[in-house]
Amino acid sequence: MNNVNDDENTSKEAGILDVAIVALTDSIKNIAPQDGFFSYEISCLHVGRSSKIDIESAKTFFQPSLGIATQGAKLVTIEKNSFQYDSQFMYITPLTVPVSLRTIKASMDEPFISIRLDLEPKRISELVLQVFPNGLPHTGQRQTSYAVKMDINIVNAMIRLVACLDNAMDVKHIAPLIVDEILIRLLRSPIGVYVAELGVANSDVEKVSKAIAYLHESFAQLVKVEELAKLVNMSSSSFHQHFKSVTAMSPLRYQKVLRLQEAKRLMIVNKLDAITACRLVGYVSDSQFSRDYTKYFGNSPKKHITSLIKRPQTLKYEI
Q: Comparing C-alpha atoms, which of 150, 141, 253 is closest to residue 197?
């Protein structure tokens, strides 16, 4: 039997949260007056706005971050797993992972609105000691991303963080405190332990993070799984298992995606031809590069780059 007072309290809490989400939406619109993706003086803070539904998916990377969509929706695909990114949940991605994004709910009157806070491993490691003074509890099966119910305290903190942009002194002195508040609340959330692992030295996630950083720096080099495992002091089998559990792909598949993304960037930003770009990212076979590129992006290098240049908004987001 349901308690009437409990139902009323739940309804009131939902109403208060809805009001806060609308307020955050308005705050983001003020600093993102047109479609685009913006970064400001608070280096870990990014906001986005899109008023059009996407026909095609854009492939990019999610950085370790907390993401909140306050209006509209996107379809996010990480390898073979998809979820809807909307205002029902907050989404946390502990590691840098390749994703496909497609806006599926947006209009000129109600554009897709989002805000992202990058997760800094160094700061997390300092806060972990306060939140988990007795060490981290046992973790279950890890995922590439996590969804938790929208937390009104984090939403309100985000509103205050955006408001800091109006005052340079607030950016310098107040914003870091608000970021810490958000991180602490995130660490205390149901998935906090998975976020905490990012900042704990020698945790499996921290080791995979180190391997990912190495791949991003050395993607054009021939890298073997055994070498990556040795780099982070893990056995090859254990490393391969943990890497795939948090990225949804093998280390070599991850490196291939890195190469293809970098080749795309070189062709767009540096205006290089496909052959030059594929050599710079580590391919020795032009035909293999073309096959891999076409399979991943859905079109040949030349046709894909041409289509992106014709769609500057998509181009800006993908880069």
A: 141
